[in-house]
Amino acid sequence: MSVIVQAENVSVDYGRKNPVHAVRNVSLTIEENQFVGLVGESGCGKSTLGFALARLERPPAQIISGTIQIVGQDWRTLAAEPLRRARWTEVSVVLQSGMNALNPIMTIGAQFKDVMEQHTRMSPAEIVARAETMLEMVQIQPEVLGRYPHELSGGMKQRIAIALALVLQPKLVIMDEPTTALDMVVQRQIVENLKELRRQQAFSMLFISHDLGLVLELADQVVVMYAGEVVERQSATSMLDHPWHPYTRALMHSLPDPENPKGSYEGIPGTPPDLHHIPTACLYAPRCPLATDVCRAQTPPLEDLKVVDLRCFVTREEVGVHVGTGA
Ligand SMILES: Nc1ncnc2c1ncn2[C@@H]1O[C@H](COP(=O)(O)OP(=O)(O)OP(=O)(O)O)[C@@H](O)[C@H]1O
Ligand SMILES: [Mg+2]
Fold first, then answer.
1. Which of 54, 137, 188, 287 is least crowded, fewest Cβ atoms below 10 Å from its Cβ?
2. Is-above-0.85 flag for pTM?
3. Ligand 1 within 6 A of 248 CB?
4. Is residue 45 lining ligand 1, measured as CB closer than 6 Å?
5. Which H helix or E strand runs over 50?
6. Does domain 3-242 sit in CATH 2.40.110.10?
7. pLDDT of residue 325
8. What is the pLDDT of residue 324?
9. Which residues lie closer than 8 Å to 257 by C-beta, 6 or more apart?
10. Is the minimum distance from the CB of 46 to ligand 1 under 6 angstroms?
11. Ligand 1 contacts CB of residue 275 (under 6 A)
12. Which residue's CA is the nearest one to ligand 1's atom 11?
């Protein structure tokens, strides 16, 4: 199984003077055809990390440390031109519906043509055929190629953005809240589209969402972030049975607030810490029902406990009992 993304100890700050340490020492591996879900409350650094991996970070965001290897290339130091060539062909990005880069003054067909002309030598007939195939995969009629974005619903535009992201068969697609801001019926349609696309075309995905239920349904592996750090990582199937971090458990037992679809949760009391000053402690301790004095005085490391990568002084003991090592 080849590795598509290998990020090591990536840290991202906003600003230089009194910076916000939005992402700290995150390591992430995504294998060929693997779907990795990245989940956490609003402000925990999901988009910051996703943008940094795609090298779409914009000032004041700055990658201050770490390495990013994508399909064997060093993306942290890649020059602008090879980076441009790699977009759409190696890595593409789908943003929250409505924030997507569908050009309002170009027909859908012209946008497919634009991407394919810039990156391939396909003939006009081949371009149309490929665009139609992609639209078919997301259950959109070929007539739509002649339409402008404003003539289409939000859900259709988002499905088109997904089709466009996959048209050049990139190795990796990063989707940041692709279904947030869409109603439940349309969200469901997109989830089914993604499952179907996966059956038809090989690609890896980083799926970013504040909705753990959705992530557990779509992803092979789930990475839970809290306050800029990874606190838990394990396969979706094992997380469903055994969420270990108290924060993951809280996410599982609370529902995303429908009144605030951008990522707040009902039922987890308290708020994440200020990311200007990172205290020496478990950052979740002030909100954690299991917190001890140790949690309030020391920073728990992210430990590889075989069945899970976990950052918790308390539940690491439970994992030890669970795997029978007593660790
Ligand atoms: N331009 C900016 N300047 C300063 N701080 C920023 C900026 N953009 C984001 N941040 C801070 O970085 C942290 C991470 O934000 P980020 O947008 O990555 O979170 P997120 O997990 O994607 O949240 P959401 O679910 O709301 O999309 C937050 O504390 C946020 O306030
Ligand atoms: Mg975000």
1. 188
2. yes
3. no
4. yes
5. helix 46-53
6. no
7. 61
8. 84
9. 264, 265, 266
10. yes
11. yes
12. 22
